[in-house]
């Protein structure tokens, strides 16, 4: 039995070129560590603010906005920076800063000085690391495996991500109950340190770019112009920009809605996020057949539609569904599954489309400029949702997000640039 299983595993590995690539496997292991840690922090950090610090809806909105502000202020120069420097050192440095930032939360809490203002700072620095390190990570992956295998790689990441989404929130719930939320964040900080050790000597096509004689502003201008003159990128930019505004608004209010309107505990929230991991697993299974049958745009539009359904379902959950708070918690858990499946189905094809249509020389500027154009609107969404939650009700704020999600889905379905995407994309040539 064991020998037969070992033979099947060996045959699978021989057929899979990515898993035969030792550098990709190391990169993948690093991503696994970061996924597990990030899902623990995704539950622990909001609970620090909502429960320990008694944050108001407006303060939760500011917290969400703080993590997105770097994309609005720094994304454009970051793109030029990435195009002018090797990506691996930038990636490692961002992980180190992220580890130190997260490690400060339990330390300051232990000293008795943790405040909502400190959490704003943590969110702001984490946003900067996500901007710079995340951009470097996307470009480095393209250099590591090539454009042709991006969908295959993304499906592998999604499969592992689904496992992390199932296991990590349960671990987070136990750690939060046992250590309290601030100390649970240590797991994520240690994950970043281990990731640095794994990646530090990684071999890949990551040469130092030739020094640019152009002024940074000229490079920024060229990056914006390239996206504007590429209809597919232009459409993806406004669509993802509106989606991020809605998602950050939803994220700012959903934890408060679950804890205060539905009465869910940290443990129940952890279970809800665990079930959400099944949604990520479903997306990893569905993305390749959907992309093969309907193209990457069809898979992406399916994801957007599912997220809109989740946005609409959450505020419709009553405090006692079928006369029971448990019924409401179960409904919230199913919404989490739907949302996670939709998010991954949206972003895997979205990122692949961006990479395929962009020449190597523009990858850094494209990634960061697109992140600027798409995430710069996120602070407005978080702040507006926080304002609505504060002055009307949390349920009303979530309902406004739902209306926006449905409208966006219809607009994207009928967008001409997404209905006429060729089957085999090639990098667009800058004008």
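Sequence proposed for the structure above (431 residues):
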């Amino acid at each position: 039995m064991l020998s037969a299983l070992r033979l099947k595993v060996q045959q699978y590995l021989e057929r899979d070129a990515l898993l035969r690539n030792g550098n990709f496997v190391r990169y993948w292991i690093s991503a696994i560590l970061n996924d597990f840690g990030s899902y623990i922090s995704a539950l622990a950090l909001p609970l620090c603010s909502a429960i320990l610090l008694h944050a108001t809806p407006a303060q939760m909105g500011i917290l969400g906005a703080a993590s997105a502000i770097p994309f609005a202020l720094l994304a454009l120069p970051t793109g030029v920076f990435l195009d002018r420097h090797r990506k691996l050192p930038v990636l490692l440095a961002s992980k180190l800063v992220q580890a130190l930032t997260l490690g400060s939360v339990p330390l300051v809490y232990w000293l008795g000085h943790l405040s909502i203002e400190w959490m704003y700072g943590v969110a702001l620095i984490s946003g900067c690391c996500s901007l710079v390190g995340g951009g470097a990570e996307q470009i480095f992956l393209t250099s590591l495996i090539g454009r042709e295998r991006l969908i295959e790689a993304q499906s592998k990441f999604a499969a592992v991500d689904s496992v992390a989404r199932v296991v990590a929130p349960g671990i987070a719930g136990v750690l939060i109950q046992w250590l309290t939320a601030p100390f649970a964040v240590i797991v994520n900080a240690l994950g970043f340190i281990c990731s640095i050790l794994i990646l530090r000597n990684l071999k890949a096509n990551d040469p130092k770019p030739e020094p640019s004689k152009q002024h940074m502003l000229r490079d920024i201008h060229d990056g914006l112009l390239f996206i504007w003159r590429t209809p597919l990128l232009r459409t993806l930019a406004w669509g993802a920009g509106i989606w991020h505004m809605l998602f950050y608004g939803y994220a700012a209010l959903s934890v408060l809605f679950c804890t205060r309107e539905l009465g869910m505990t940290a443990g129940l929230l952890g279970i809800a996020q665990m079930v959400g991991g099944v949604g990520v697993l479903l997306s990893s299974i569905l993305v390749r057949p959907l992309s093969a049958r309907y193209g990457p745009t069809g898979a992406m539009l399916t994801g957007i539609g599912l997220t809109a359904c989740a946005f609409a379902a959450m505020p419709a959950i009553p405090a006692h569904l079928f006369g029971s708070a448990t019924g409401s918690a179960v409904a919230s858990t199913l919404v989490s599954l739907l949302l996670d499946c939709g998010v991954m189905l949206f972003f895997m094809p979205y990122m692949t489309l961006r990479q395929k249509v962009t020449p190597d020389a523009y990858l850094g500027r494209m990634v960061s400029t697109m992140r600027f154009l798409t995430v710069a609107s996120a602070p407005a969404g978080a702040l507006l949702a926080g304002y609505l939650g504060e002055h009307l009700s949390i349920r009303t704020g979530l309902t406004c997000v739902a209306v926006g999600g449905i409208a966006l889905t219809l607009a994207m379905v009928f967008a001409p640039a997404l209905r006429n995407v060729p089957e085999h994309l090639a990098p667009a040539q800058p004008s």
